[in-house]
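Input record, target 12 of the design panel.
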């Protein structure tokens, strides 16, 4: 450890396949850090390969928290993750170590740093009813329902944005108030006593897309299809958020005999590239980073990153 920590929290953000995990591991080893997951799919225990979770070797090198901590049968909302993350960060601070929050789920990062609007939790039975209705009637009909009860939210969501449309309908069904009204309320703000420093990886698009494609193929070789098949055999509810993980829908279709493997891989790669593009847009519009690397992580930019950490997250030398 090169210096004394105060209440600093390092956020390592970026799109999928940008090298966040490798960078975070290097930082944790150099600065006595603990890695805290901020990826909405890496919280699920059964999806290690499909979500590119850190492997056992990496977990043995430095402590990792909030990876694989929930079964796929549970729903991890941003509010639930925020509570778990704050608890982990506080514990790391008490131990005198550096908390490093690593992930690309923008809603989680914003929830941590800015807080959330005080939307009550949605009961599981309401969530299941709305998702089942969506599967039965299709996204167009659900969007029409949303336009009736929450026209403001419907106006900013496309009918194909099934996840967000369903979320808005769930909130209205559970509370009787439109999601737009809840979002207009002031958020609870950042956790007291925490100082965030954000490091953002923004690789060039072509390099990022190539990395997305290569990683998807590596997942298949490593056993992603077997993970998907195990969940299919268990009869896990396909409407659960975990079953929407990148690659999952196409691979489920392949395992059911509806798609060839090559076609399923192409579809999964396309979905991953589109997701990475949405992430880049979100980071560009929603986060003002303290430090940006316009490349994928590599040893070439590591020393520059380490220098930023020494100057901004450490308060002196031991």
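The sequence produced for target 12 reads:
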């Amino acid at each position: 450890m090169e210096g004394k920590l105060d209440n600093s929290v390092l956020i390592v953000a970026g799109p999928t396949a940008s090298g966040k995990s490798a960078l975070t591991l290097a930082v944790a080893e150099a600065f006595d850090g603990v890695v805290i997951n901020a990826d909405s799919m890496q919280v699920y225990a059964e999806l290690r390969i499909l979500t590119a979770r850190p492997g056992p070797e990496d977990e043995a090198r430095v402590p990792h928290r909030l990876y694989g901590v929930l079964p796929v049968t549970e729903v991890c909302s941003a509010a639930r993750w925020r509570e778990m993350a704050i608890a982990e960060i506080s514990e790391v601070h008490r131990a005198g170590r550096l908390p490093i929050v690593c992930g690309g789920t923008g809603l989680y990062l914003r929830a941590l740093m800015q807080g959330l609007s005080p939307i009550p939790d949605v009961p599981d039975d309401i969530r299941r009813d709305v998702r089942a209705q969506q599967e039965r009637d299709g996204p167009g009909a659900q969007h029409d329902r949303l336009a009736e009860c929450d026209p403001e939210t419907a106006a900013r969501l496309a009918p194909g944005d099934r996840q967000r449309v369903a979320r808005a309908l769930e909130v209205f069904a559970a509370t009787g108030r439109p999601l737009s009204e809840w979002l207009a309320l002031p958020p609870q703000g950042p956790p007291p006593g925490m100082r965030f420093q954000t490091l953002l990886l923004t690789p060039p698009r072509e390099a990022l897309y190539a990395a997305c494609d290569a990683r998807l193929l590596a997942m298949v070789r490593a056993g992603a299809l077997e993970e998907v098949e195990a969940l299919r055999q268990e009869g896990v509810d396909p409407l659960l958020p975990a079953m929407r993980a990148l690659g999952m829908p196409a691979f489920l279709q392949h395992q059911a005999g509806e798609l060839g493997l090559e076609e399923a891989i192409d579809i999964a790669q396309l979905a991953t590239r589109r997701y990475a593009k949405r992430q880049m847009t979100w980071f560009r519009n929603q986060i003002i980073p303290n430090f940006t690397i316009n490349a994928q992580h590599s040893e070439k930019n590591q020393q520059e990153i380490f220098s930023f950490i020494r100057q901004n997250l450490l308060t002196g030398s031991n």
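Residues 8 and 116 are 21 Å apart (CA to CA).
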